[in-house]
Amino acid sequence: MAGFATFPLPGEPCAARSARSLTRTTLTDWDLDELVGDTTVVVSELVTNALRYGLPAGSRPTPLPPASEDQPLLLSLVHCERSVLCAVFDPGQDVPLARAPEPYQESGRGLKVLEALAKNWGWTTPDRHGKAVWALLAADEPRDGGAATPQWEPLSRLLLLLELLSGPSWLKALGSTSGAVTSRVN
Length: 186
Hints:
The protein has about 190 residues and is an alpha+beta fold. It has one domain (about 1-95, about 105-140, about 150-170): 2-Layer Sandwich (Heat Shock Protein 90), CATH 3.30.565.10. It contains 5 helices and 6 strands. Pfam families: HATPase_c_2 (PF13581).
């Protein structure tokens, strides 16, 4: 079973709350309740980083359609069996940079949270529309007792469709030519 959903988001602080709600509803509709908690945290971090670093100040970016100047961010969710790929597209050119925050800093830990919860994460190479930062999450155990590894062929087809419709190269980002790919060892 596979599915795909995309939501434009405003370039305002309320975008993270909206993204969490949309993610929760979508994953529940897809019967992926066991992924709701971790995925909403990851999506919130992705949107927060896009708001902080992906909206170029003083310029009029060309966001990736169906995003617009009023809603310059896109949240995309793709699922295949018991896995979810979530991505946030922003019009910025800066790629994520994991840094070690000071012990008493209130921010700067978002990518560490992403690394802890996601099986893989990375970003697409920025182009005229910006970039996507993505994370792959998977349920630990299948419900039917079958193999835990999802069938990636349907997911690959969905990503190819996204590639054709949107422009930024998710397929390259998921492969060895990515700007960065981080794997979580379980």
